[in-house]
């Protein structure tokens, strides 16, 4: 992935873009009855982010999902199998529109380890604006330092991410909670 890393202020259209794409994925994967969640920085109100919508797709098993890899390609997603070396229990896809990255899809087992980790991180940031602001600072600093090195940018965030994951779940929300209506309507 060689496109530059740019962190921009929060955009209120990100949840709308998620909902539109989630509907498409529900149709594409309907036989699997996927659970689809908005994750990543674009899912946290007010948080600066790379303007790429990250989507977590929970399926009964990755074995069940294998038959749908090509189907997602038909919907405009590029499968990146080499990422499985680092995360073998996740299937990763990206969507590019006119050379610009717009969406990431992370397919995992619903209620499995990765499902819970992604949602806990998101939920803790949503529950604590101060924590989200610190994360934005980390991301801006790393984007400025590594604008063309996605691995260095991602690795630079890992200490912060692991510290947030080590925290108790914030405000009593368990992984998989429903966001308040204000977040869903934004």
Q: How would you sum up this structure, described in words?
A:
With 186 residues, the chain is of the alpha+beta class. The protein has a single domain (14-185), classed as Beta Polymerase, domain 2 (2-Layer Sandwich), CATH 3.30.460.10. The protein has 7 helices and 5 strands, in the order αββααβββαααα. It has helices spanning 14-28, 62-65, 69-74, 113-127, 129-145, 150-166, 181-185, and strands spanning 35-39, 53-59, 78-79, 91-97, 100-109. Strands 1-2-5-4-3 form a 5-stranded mixed sheet, sandwiched between helices. Strand 4 (91-97) and strand 5 (100-109) form a beta hairpin. The chain is globular and about 40 Å long. It starts with 13 loop residues before the first helix and ends with a helix.
């Amino acid at each position: 992935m060689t496109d530059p890393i740019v962190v921009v202020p929060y955009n209120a259209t990100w949840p709308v873009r998620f909902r539109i794409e989630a509907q498409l994925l529900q149709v594409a994967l309907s036989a699997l009855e996927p659970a689809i969640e908005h994750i990543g920085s674009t899912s946290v109100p007010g948080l600066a982010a790379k303007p790429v919508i990250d989507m977590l797709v929970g399926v009964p098993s990755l074995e069940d999902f294998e038959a749908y890899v090509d189907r997602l390609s038909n919907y405009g997603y590029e499968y990146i199998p080499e990422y499985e070396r680092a995360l073998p229990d996740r299937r990763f896809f990206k969507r590019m529109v006119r050379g610009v990255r717009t969406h990431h899809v992370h397919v995992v087992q619903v209620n499995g380890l990765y499902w819970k980790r992604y949602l806990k991180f998101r939920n803790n940031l949503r529950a604590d604006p101060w924590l989200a602001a610190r994360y934005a600072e980390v991301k801006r600093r790393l984007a400025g330092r590594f604008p063309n090195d996605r691995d260095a940018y991602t690795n630079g965030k890992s200490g912060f991410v692991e510290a947030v994951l080590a925290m108790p779940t914030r405000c009593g929300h368990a992984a998989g909670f429903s966001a308040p209506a204000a977040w869903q309507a934004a």
